[in-house]
Design goal:
Blueprint (H helix, E strand, L loop, with lengths): L1 E2 L1 H4 L4 H4 L15 H6 L1 H4 L7 E5 L2 H5 L4 H18 L4 E5 L5 H6 L2 H17 L3 E4 L2 H4 L20 H19 L2 H9 L1
Parallel strand pairs: 1-2, 2-3, 3-4
Helix pairs in contact: 6-8
Length: 186
């Protein structure tokens, strides 16, 4: 797991996704540019066969344009592919948190997510996962009871919702031929 505080605060991830081998290398407050800056300390040494990425929320809050967020994520993918050529990557959408709605950033989040989806579709062994349906009502409104007081970070219910949607993808990717091949090479 690589990314920002949404992952860093996910202290139950190893239990939530057991028996999959989970290592959480996220750090709070990080933007996509920070993930590039610290890439060499985070990704190559992980020797991961499956990498899950959540980053971009802090970029949106910092008024980084969506195309720059996607460009930085693309650079991170290029570096990840060079460091871990057989790894499968799952890119998660930026969460449409109530804080984003209250700050007027939903259009930037949506544009970023469209760009991340398009990016994932253009790169082999990369899957895009929109986690927002697990955190919203059928009408597209945030489930407020999934967030702590800051309306940005998730609480236990929010992480349970994330687990329910991400678990299916991780289980599928873990059993994929590409990942099976990568795991036998390490």
């Amino acid at each position: 797991m690589v990314g920002s505080s949404i992952f860093k605060r996910w202290t139950t991830a190893a239990v939530d996704f057991a028996p999959l081998p989970i290592t959480n290398r996220a750090f709070g407050g990080s933007r996509t540019v920070d993930q590039l800056l610290f890439f060499d300390q985070i990704v190559p040494s992980s020797k991961a066969a499956l990498v899950v990425w959540y980053c971009g929320s802090n970029d949106v809050n910092g008024k980084v344009p969506p195309d720059e967020i996607v460009k930085n994520t693309s650079e991170w993918l290029t570096r990840t592919r060079a460091a871990l050529p057989d790894a499968v990557v799952v890119l998660l959408s930026v969460i449409r948190a109530p804080q984003k709605r209250d700050s007027g950033y939903l259009s930037q989040v949506d544009e970023t997510n469209r760009g991340l989806k398009k990016l994932a579709e253009s790169v082999p062994d990369v899957t895009y996962l929109d986690v927002n349906p697990a955190l919203e009502t059928p009408g597209g409104e945030a489930q407020l009871d999934c967030y702590i007081e800051d309306k940005l970070h998730l609480n236990a219910k929010g992480y349970a919702q994330m687990t329910s949607i991400l678990r299916r993808v991780l289980d599928k990717e873990w059993k994929s031929p590409a990942l099976t091949s990568a795991a036998t090479k390490s």
